[in-house]
Structure formats: structure tokens, C-alpha cells
Amino acid sequence: MKIAVCIKQVPDTSEVKLDKTTNxxxxxxxxxxxxxxxxxxxxxALSIRDQVGGTVTVVTMGPPQAEEALREAIAVGAxxxxxxxxxxxxxxxxxxxxxxxxxxxxxxxxxxxxxxKQAIDxxxxxVGPEVAEFLDIPHVAYVRRVESVSPTxxxxxxLMDDGYDVVEAEVPVLLTVxxxxxxxxxxxxxxxMRAKKFEAKRMTAADLGLAQGDLGLQGSPTQVNRxxxxxxxAERKPLxxxxxxxxxxxxxxxxKDNCFC
Length: 261
Hints:
- The protein has helices spanning 36-52, 67-76, 94-108, 127-135, 189-197, 205-208, 243-256; strands at 2-6, 9-11, 32-34, 55-61, 80-84, 112-116, 139-150, 153-160, 163-170, 173-177, 201-203.
- It is an alpha/beta fold.
- A hairpin with a 2-residue loop joins strand 7 (139-150) and strand 8 (153-160).
- The strands form 2 sheets. Strands 9-8-7-10-6-1-4-5-11 form a 9-stranded mixed sheet, sandwiched between helices. Strands 2-3 form a two-stranded antiparallel ribbon.
- It is globular and about 65 Å long.
- The protein has one domain: HUPs (Rossmann fold).
């Protein structure tokens, strides 16, 4: 089975900086980590490969420094890695990112694609499902457990607000996973030695056959108009009395602040 894992190198949350002109994250020169949810996606892919055979290829889109994240994935056990890097990709929103990733995954002929449920620097949870739509394949979001897997299909539990659904799908299929699914493995000494010498295959917009208008800021209909830190509010008003009295008092305060439409 050809398994692909989409990972993202995200800025360390204590070092986030913004470009004041584009209102996008500045990534160059900033300490970065692999998006934590993507580590669970990688572990899921490696576990499935161990069960049914095949290969695991890790794919990421980013500046040249993102190759470091790919080496980390190789150290953990991935078989191959692809870096999508081109200045034309800069400033991509979820739509432009998904178009780029889907083009690469189509070229790789991936049968099973695994993604983390979301990235911690955006929290949109949109890229995985959007990639599946561009590839015209089914997807299952918020996977909490893999019940069974074969070279032709998979049976999983999908996390819901009130429990979980059991979903079966034939390949090709895309999964987005939650952290409850597994515990990511640590890199091995052999893996670290291999990663040290590993060079990821690089693909540009030209390699993927993508039009410039579909990429980066040009291909991103979502625009950030303003980024700011919300002002803290120090006022606190404790409510007393019975539960019914507290609810009545709370409703009165909300009406006073025009919180009801």
C-alpha cells in the first residue's frame, strides 16, 4: 500500500511573529517543530505499513528549512519524503495549500493519506478534507481508532460529540486523526543515522503543473485584514443565590451588555 502523510512545520508557539504587510506568519529563521497532531498521523501510517506492508512517504509544503521536519520523520521510520518548496507558495491559505498538496499526492499515486486533524498555528482543520475533495476521494475526519485495515480498505472509529461512529472505506481514502489515536514512537538510532544523510525530493510549482494564479497569496481567497491580541477584561462580578437565581441574574447582565440579538 502506498501511504502518504501530510505534515507541517509550525513555529514554536513562544516565538510567533507576524509580517505587518501581509498579516501572515514569518517562518524563516523562527524555531519550528512538527505540528503535534501530524506526529500522530505519522505513527498511524507507520503502524498500518507494519500490518499490511507498503511504504510511507511524508509530504510537506514550506521553505527549504522545512526539510528538517522531513528528516525527523525519516528518523522515526518513514521510507521517503517530498518537500514542496517554491516562493510562489508563500502566503497560501487553506485552499491554495490544499491544491498544492493534492497535486503532489496525485503524482505520488497515494492510496491512503493520513493527516493530523489540524495545525496548531491555524486551527482551521480544513486542509485534510479539502485535499480529499481536490483528489475526489472519500475522507474520514477525527479518527480515534483504527479497527482493521487491509490493502483494499480500512475500518475506523470517528470521534463525535456524543461518542463515535464506525466507518468503513475503500482505498483510496484520506484520514485526519486525533491525538487519542496513538502514542508516537521515538526515532531509532538507525533512523537517526539514515536521516542525517537523507535528502528529500523537492518539487516546485512547475513540477506540479500548477498555475501561478492558484498559488500563494494570488490563489488565496481568505485574506487576513487585521491581527491583534484581545484586550484583557479585569471586571468580575460573582453571582450568588440558588442556581435559578444565578441564571436569572446572568441573563439580566447579558441583556444589559446587548449580548442577545
